[in-house]
Amino acid sequence: MSAVVGQGAPIEDPAKIKVETPFRRFCSEFAESKLALGGLIVISIIIVVAILAPFISPQDPYDLAVLDIMDGRLEPGEKSGDGSITYWLGTDDQGRDMLSGIMYGLRISLTVGAGSAFIACMVGASLGLAAAYAGGKTDSIIMRIVDLQLSFPSILVALMILAFLGKSVTNVVIAIVVVEWAYYARTVRGTALVERRREYIEAAECLALPRYRILFRHLLPNCLPPLIVIGTMQVARAIALEATLSFLGLGVPITEPSLGLLIANGYEYMLSGKYWISFYPGIALLVTIVAINLVGDQLRDVLNPRLQK
Amino acid sequence: MSVYLLRRLIQAAGVVLAMSIIVFVGVFAIGDPVEILISPDADQFERERAIIALGLDLPLWQQYLIFLGKAVQGDLGRSFVFNEPALQLILQRMPATLELAFAATFGAILIGLPLGLYAGLKPNSVGSKAIMAGSILGFSLPTFWVGLMLIMVFAVQLGWLPSTGRGETVEILGTRWSFLTWNGLTHLAMPALNLALFKISLVIRLTRAGVRETMLMDYVKFARAKGLSPFRVTFVHVFKNILIPVVTVTGLEFGSTIAFSVVTESIFAWPGMGKLIIDSINVLDRPVIVAYLMIVVLMFITINLVVDLMYSVLDPRVRLDSK
Amino acid sequence: MADSLNPATAAAPTLEVRNLQTHFFTRGGVVRAVDDVSFTIGRGKVLGLVGESGSGKTVTGFSIMGLVDAPGRIVGGSILFQGNDLAKLSEEEMRHLRGNRIAMIFQDPMMTLNPVLRIDTQMIETVLAHEKVSEDEARARSRDALGMVGIPSPDERLKSYPHQFSGGMRQRVAIAIALLHRPDLIVADEPTTALDVTIQGQILAEVQKLCATTGTAMLWITHDLSVVAGLADDIAVMYAGRVVEHGDVGEVLDAPLHPYTHGLIGSVPSRNKRGEPLRQIPGMTPSLLNLPEGCSFRARCPRAQADCVVMPELKPWLPGRLARCHHPHLEEVVAA
After folding, report:
1. What is the pLDDT of residues C18-38, one digit of tens each?
2. Would you tell me which residues 267-286 of chain C have a C-beta closer than 8 angstroms to some C-beta of chain B?
3. Has residue C87 got a pLDDT over 70?
4. Domain boundaries in chain C?
5. Distance from B317 to chain C by nearest Cα, in Å?
6. Is the pLDDT of residue B133 over 90?
7. Could you tell me which residues of chain C have a Cβ less than 8 Å from any Cβ in chain A?
8. Are B223 and C114 within 8 A, CB to CB?
9. Could you give the strand order of the β-sheet that contains C72-81, starting from the edge strand earlier in sequence?
10. pLDDT higher than 60, residue B322
11. Which residue from A81, B149, B217, C114 has the highest number of Cβ atoms inside 10 Å of its Cβ?
């Protein structure tokens, strides 16, 4: 709004304002940042690529039969021995096309990242809601655990979980969920505490609606804006954490490498100047994380009423 | 002050106890300790004897008390791999990690403070915008990938810096330090920068926010009204005020620097305890894992305590209130 | 009282502000915070600058100090300090005057002293900023200044931090800092507003005494007419960024010319009019972003007529009495 005045533009004509639904208003405010819009477009492309990877990738990187070890460590742009494929981003030590590897890697990274962030959101939001609604002992116990956990860095908590449970994809997901749920719980509790004192909750309670209905139909939807913002940021964090754990060899198995493992695979060849095996998966990871963060930043500005100037 | 100190100490002890239970239950109850602790070649009789000898037939709470009793005496078990006391293994590698973490923290302040100060004093300049964009990158970039890129550029392409190890060290008080030799410093530079990256961004943001907030304060305007030079206003009146949050946060972050050194140490083959823990998790050397987790938790809690106390030294208002 | 000390130079004013304009160039448009302010302060005199909050008093003070920050800027007029135009000085030249020849006291004593620096640091740096003396000498001067404003055991107090002082004591420290170089002019921006009434009285008495002995002129910015009545020699009334009335404090308060001043005085609760409803000025202070054409007070003015759409000039209606109005309350002055 303020930007409109700032540009010295005439006030929008009233007819246009009338049809402005909250969603449209949200969209137009979001689009004010070209950077965030760019981020959104990039994310969309990445998601489409990840979904369509089996159809658009030049090669199935998991099918060992199509890999030719003779094509190993080819530079970007070189052709395969039989001339059938051009390796635009080079190949890794097993002759796997990096471009295909990255597309499939994105699939795994996004699935693990978004999936675990989603589970963490479910767990955290439920516990946060419960803490805010129940109050008293329940609240203080849940929040004590949240405080304790947030005082330790994510990597340490994740290492602890993997040390307890051993390494596997499921355990990486569990580790990310354990790391992230506390952020959701704290956010939802904070918002819910404010919201539950509002009249509409009182009204719902006067109607003697069942408790779960008040919680999930009345309270939760009003806690959504901060949840969406936190959720976006946490997806980026989850992807980065998964990549880090996989890089350390504690994550996904070598047979179905995520971006982090692809980067780790290229590590030993980096010293001999074969940069592309690590470099391009890294770029894919970087672009994904930055794009999500840009969108998240703008979402925070648009959805947070306290920040509206 | 002493009441406050006592309360904080009891609090810290409570957290240590809670964490020891979590670690104990996590490592010894979720996994099967028999498989971990007893050689797979042992026959049935040997197994049972070992189970009784290790106290594994006792109820869990009793096992925990035994574990706790030994832990207090500094006995956290023996490493399966190295066949050495786990605690000793960790302590041997701790100086390398501490050196790296200190270098990273120091570097973060050295680089982050001036940049943040500039961005705060001239918020609309092109330089400031570049600095802020850079700090967003610093938050987003995965540490391990930046580490690889540093190796690619400075070690492989330019050949300026060595890519792995600690280099030459000097022995002082029984431990070896890299930062005292030129060769060691060149080895330290890249890992430290890599580990510092996130913290540089953090310091920049904190400093900038602090400067912008402080510049609006009446006492800064009053300092200008006294006719002080801009230099003195900035570096005495503004700087001393922003130093408090920056020191607090970098101090609190020191613990996470140690935790995140796991990644950096793996990349640069820095022989610290972070690399040890990753190796130990990979070969399931559980006593070392337990020892590492307990030591890091203990360090964490100590750091939080020290930062709290330092805060009260730096800020005269806190000092008075807690008396 | 004060002018008896320096009758010869009383004619040469310490400060003469002429048609000062300070505007703020914000995203929302140009805010004319100060738009045509003129007044004079003679040597050793106290001028009370009166107005509602938002009328531009504080910005006027900061303009004189050269402390207007972006997006604000002095865009017109002159600030003659002992004959030199401050608006034309470089930042470096201005800095040498600030805290030295012209000092300022701020409104909120809880906020003006740096919380993390000791009192001695904050005083000594002020001495050293303008004079090359030893640190011991600077400390001695600081101690004397603290004693002068009535702070007991100044030697000990020098080593304290601001939070160890009460609000009144902090304001005394701020005044002591302002007095360190025996300035020719002190700009005091509502320095007693945040204080208890008893402390306020003490500080006013202290300031009056100091001005009388040192010959320091003072610009006393306030919204409190009773403070002005007790302290000032002259008064300037501001409304919406402009001085609307200027003159001797006794004469103006007894028989104001401008309808705004009239309303302002009428709004003060007084013992004489117990039981009568308070008079008030209807309406609200206009937004400085888009002031109405002509006299900015006309929408609220009981005497407004058609010619008020033309902005009146600040001009003398009686000897030594200036007002910015087409229809001043002349009849009451004559009656008085």
Report:
1. 899 999 888 778 888 888 898
2. none
3. yes
4. 11-101+185-271+278-335, 110-180
5. 7
6. no
7. 27-29
8. yes
9. C29-42, C13-26, C72-81, C84-85
10. no
11. C114
**Better pLDDT: B149 or C283:** B149
Question: How far is Cα of residue A217 from the mean position of the Cα atoms in its chain?
Answer: 26
Residue B148 to residue A271: CA distance in whole angstroms: 10
User: What are A78's strand-pairing partners?
Assistant: A87
**Which among B27, B260, B289 is the nearest to A153, CB-wise?**
B260
Q: Which residue of C has its CA nearest to B237?
A: C114
Binning pLDDT at 50, 70 and 90, where does residue B315 land?
low
Instruction: Check if the beta carbon of residue B144 is closer than 8 Å to that of residue A263.
Output: yes
Instruction: Specify the pairing of strand C185-189 against strand C102-105.
Output: parallel
Q: Is B36 or A125 the better-scoring residue by pLDDT?
A: A125
Give the integer Cα–Cα distance in Å for B77 and B86. 6
Tokens of C237: 């009334």
Q: What is the DSSP letter of B177?
A: E
Residue A263 sits at the chain B interface (C-beta within 8 Å) = yes
Structural domains in chain B, CATH included, are 2-72 (no CATH), 88-314 (1.10.3720.10)
User: Which residues in chain B have their CB less than 8 angstroms from residue A165's CB?
Assistant: 30
Read off the tokens for A137.
Answer: 């002992």
Closest CA of chain A from B207, distance in Å: 20
Q: Are B263 and B312 in contact (CB under 8 A)?
A: no
Q: What is the pLDDT of residue A15?
A: 47
Say if domain C11-101+185-271+278-335 classifies as CATH 3.40.50.970: no
Q: How far is C275 from chain B (nearest CA, A)?
A: 42
Query: Which residue, among A258, A299, A297, has the nearest Cα to A281 in the 3D structure?
Result: A258
CB nearest A243 (choices: B142, B266, B286): B142
Rounded mean pLDDT, A75-87: 69
Half-sphere exposure of C187 (CA within 13 A, CB side): 26
User: Considering the entire predicted model, what is its pTM?
Assistant: 0.78
Give me the interface pTM, i.e. the ipTM.
Answer: 0.84
> Which of the residues B27, B136, B144, B308 would you substitute to probe the A interface, choosing the one with the greatest number of A C-beta atoms within 10 Å?
B144
Phi, psi of C18, deg, nearest 5: -125, 120
Q: Are A285 and A225 in contact (CB under 8 A)?
A: no
- Are B289 and A151 in contact (CB < 8 Å)? no
Q: Does A270 touch chain B (CB under 8 A)?
A: yes
Residue A136 φ/ψ region, left for φ over 0, alpha for ψ in the -120 to 50 degree band, beta for the rest: left
Other Cβ atoms closer than 10 A to B293? 24
CB-CB contact of B257 with C149 (8 Å) = no
* Chain-chain contact of B156 with A270 (C-beta, under 8 angstroms): yes
User: What local confidence, expressed as pLDDT, does residue A68 receive?
Assistant: 67
> Could you tell me which of A98, A91, A53 has the C-alpha nearest to residue A69?
A91
Q: Cβ contacts (< 8 Å) between C28 and chain A: which residues?
A: 2, 5-6
- Subunits with 3+ Cβ pairs within 8 Å of C are A, B
SS3 C256: coil
Closest CA to B99 of B178, B164, B183: B178
How far is the alpha carbon of A37 from chain C, nearest alpha carbon, in Å? 24
**DSSP state, A219?**
I
- Would you call A156 and B27 a contact, using CB atoms and an 8 Å cutoff? no
Cβ distance A201 to A195 under 8 Å?
Answer: yes
DSSP string across C308-325: GGSPPP-EEEETTEEE--
The pLDDT value given to residue B317: 62
Binary contact (C108, B218; C-beta < 8 A): yes
**In chain A, alpha helices (H):** 2-6, 14-18, 22-30, 34-56, 98-134, 136-150, 154-165, 169-195, 199-206, 211-213, 220-222, 224-247, 259-270, 276-303
**B171, B173, B176, B179: CA torsion to nearest 10:** -80
Kindly give, in sequence order, each residue whose CB lies less than 8 Å from that of residue C269, ignoring residues fewer than 6 positions away.
C278
Element (H, E) at C31: strand C29-42
